[in-house]
Design brief:
Oligomer: single chain
CATH superfamily: Ribonuclease Z/Hydroxyacylglutathione hydrolase-like
Number of strands: 14
Bound molecules: zinc ion
CATH class: Alpha Beta
Mean pLDDT: 96
Largest sheet: 6 strands, mixed
Radius of gyration: 18 Å
Shape: globular
Helix content: 25-40%
Length: 256
Amino acid sequence: MTDPHIQPIKVLSDNYTYIIRLDNEGFTAVVDPATVAEPVEAIEAGGGRLDVILNTHHHHDHIGGNAALKARYGATVIGPEADRGRIPELDRGVRDGDRVALGPLTVEVMATPGHTAGHVSFYLPDAGALFAGDTLFSLGCGRLFEGTPAQMWRSLERLRALPGATRLYCGHEYSQSNAAFALSIDPDNPALQRRAAEITALRRDGRPTLPVPLATEAAANPFLRADDPGLAAAIGRAGADPVTVFADLRRRKDRF
Ligand SMILES: [Zn+2]
């Protein structure tokens, strides 16, 4: 078991860029660099090495630092092959099921379409970490810009099926507003109440609400519970299939 150091860096208004550093190897990767200055500061503080840039999807607030970071450090840019042409400086396009080496760690690429058509998530089984970009947020999920509810629900089901101890690292600090929506739907869920209280306390201290174990999200996040009969009943959709329930939840959140 190699235990990398994973550092969230808050950039722009509410984005997270993550630095993954393997101290024994010196190997360093960055996930979704929206900007240049903040990752450079973190990379320089950690020895001035950047080997790999991982992009979950093509949105500007996940790729804005690619070109400058690659030019400065010679890092290899890895992102969805489906977004070739929309991800600057993409070196290696990846697809569902691909495996990428991060030093001694393995990254498993999972296609998670819905927010964008080509969105991928990066699962590091050895580290028990999942970088889900804008697919899964704590107590929420990404908006459907390029995908259908059926695609997004399938993506979320696949992420939910990973080991419950897996720590979720996502692309935005949306947890507090997500908690307000989730509680409006599912106010009597004790797992949600506990997670919402934790989020409130962390934000009061100005701390990130990530990572969070997937098991916590599976119990508390309404978007991961679209196949729960109780949740379907709570929104007046008793007996409806999970995709219908999920689509209804997503529409409600878009208007919330
Ligand atoms: Zn996005």
